[in-house]
C-alpha cells in the first residue's frame, strides 16, 4: 500500500513537471492556429471551432517576404549547422584524443584553458569575431558563421570525448601497435567505431547548438546566411507584430531539434554521462 502511494505521488509529480515544461509549447501551438484577433484580445480568446492551419500553409507555400525568408533560412540553418557540426567534430576528435592519450608539456593546463572557454559569454567574443571576419571577408557566409559557432561548441565536444577516450582500454591500443597500426589508424579503425554513443551525443549537441544560435547569426550575417532564429524574429516588427505567425514559425524552427533529441536521447545521455563522470 505504501509503495502504491509512493508511485502515485511520483507519477503525479512527474506529470505535473512535464506539463509545466510543455505548457509554453502547447500555448504556442494553440496560438498559432487561432485567428490573430483572438490572440491580441485582452484577455486572449481561445476558440477551437475557428482553428486554422493557414499560418503553416502560408509559411510553407506563401509568396510573402516573411514566408520566403523563413524557407530560405531553414536551408541556411541546415547548411550552417552541418558545417559547424563537421568542423567541430573533426577538430574535437583529434584534440580529445591528444588530451586523453598523448603526453606533452602543459597538457592539463591547456585542457583547462580549452574547457574554460565555454564559460565565456558569447557577447564577449562576438565583436572581436566580427572585426576578424570583416578583414577575412567571412561576414554573411556559411563557413564564417559555422566557424563562429565552433567557438562555443568545440570546448564541450573536447570535454565529452576526452572522458570517453580515457576509459578506452589501453590493452587494445597496445595490441594494435604490435600489429603495426599508427595513432591515426588506431583512432579511426578501433577507437571511433567503438565510440558510437559519444560521437552521436556530440554530433547531435553540435547541430542543435548551431541551429539555435541567435547572437552570432544576428551580428555576423545580413541576408545570404540568415538562419531560422532571425527569420522568426522578423515577425516581431517595429510597426506590426504577427503573433500567430511568429508562434507558427517558432514551432517550425524547434521541430528539428525536438525530433533529434527524441530519436537519439539514449545515445545523448549515455555519451554525456560517460564524459562527465570521467572528466
TrEMBL record:
Signal peptide: none annotated. InterPro entries: BP-dep_ABC_trans_perm, MetI-like, MetI-like_sf. CDD domains: TM_PBP2. Coiled coil: none annotated. It is a multi-pass membrane protein. The keyword Transmembrane applies. Pfam families: BPD_transp_1. It comes from the Bacteria. GO terms for biological process: transmembrane transport. The chain crosses the membrane at residues 9-30, 74-98, 110-133, 145-165, 186-211, 243-264. The keyword Transmembrane applies. Residues 74-264 form the ABC transmembrane type-1 domain. Keywords: Cell membrane, Membrane, Transmembrane, Transmembrane helix, Transport. One of its GO terms (cellular component) is plasma membrane. It is found in: Cell membrane. Belongs to the binding-protein-dependent transport system permease family. This is Carbohydrate ABC transporter permease. It comes from candidate division CPR3 bacterium. The lineage of its organism: Bacteria, Bacteria division CPR3.
